[in-house]
Amino acid sequence: MAPIPTPPAEPQDSPDGYVGLDAAHAERLARQRGWPTVRSLPPGAIITMEYRAGRLNFEVRDGRVARAWKG
């Protein structure tokens, strides 16, 4: 039987720290801090609910991060 894979470690910063930042700046900052996947979404976007380790999601309104969460 194959071993269960270990998910990669996520950066140790809080998604709340990105709220209010310019979306482009927030994405650059997140990648610099080690997030391999950063996803920017418009308000009300229909998305799948699967959790992906190492992914940071941004809800972007008027060019600024309104909400941020892991997965």
UniProtKB/TrEMBL annotation:
Which Pfam family name is an example for this entry? Answer: Inhibitor_I78
Q: Which domain of life is it from?
A: Bacteria
InterPro entries, per the entry: Prot_inh_I78
Provide the protein name.
Answer: Proteinase inhibitor I78
Species, as recorded: Streptomyces capoamus
